[in-house]
Design a protein that fits this description.
It is a single chain. By secondary structure, the protein is mainly α. The chain has one domain. It contains five helices and no strands. The protein is globular, with a radius of gyration of 19 Å. The chain starts with a helix and ends in a 5-residue tail after the last helix.
Amino acid sequence: MTAQEQDTPPVMADAVIAQVIQLKDPDEAISSAIWWRVAELLRTCTTATTSGPHLTNTLLEHAFTATDDVLSSLSADSEPGRGDVSHSPSTPDFVSLESAPPLDAALPLGAGYDALAATRRSCLRLARLLFSLDPTTPALLATRVNQLRRALTAWRFEALDAAVGHRVRPAS
């Protein structure tokens, strides 16, 4: 396989994502730079969910970093006082990301919970926002990214539990 053949899928994916972002409503509150970060987050999560167990922890850390990057960019882009009247606290549709409810509630872990499947479902919901041509509010995007972060956290606990379970075997 030549180097050009190996580079084609990522280049094609970037071209498709660029086209989708370009087709989004120019009046949308979320900038194209943030949508690119969302695309990178989805790429990172997809790689993590399809990797083998030996790479899971490393790729999960990359996914957390990408999640934090999207949330901080979204927060910075939505801050009041940046000169954008449509997103000032005095307008009725303004949603402060800092006022969102905390997501520190107990994670749904247990025998019947599949954290990897939950992570994949969260990725799918986020991908639907990315590829939708309907306007997306910053609050909805932040909610979806936070849901993905929670699913990643549950998956990390599940992966760590499995790793510890393999290391600590009772002597017979």
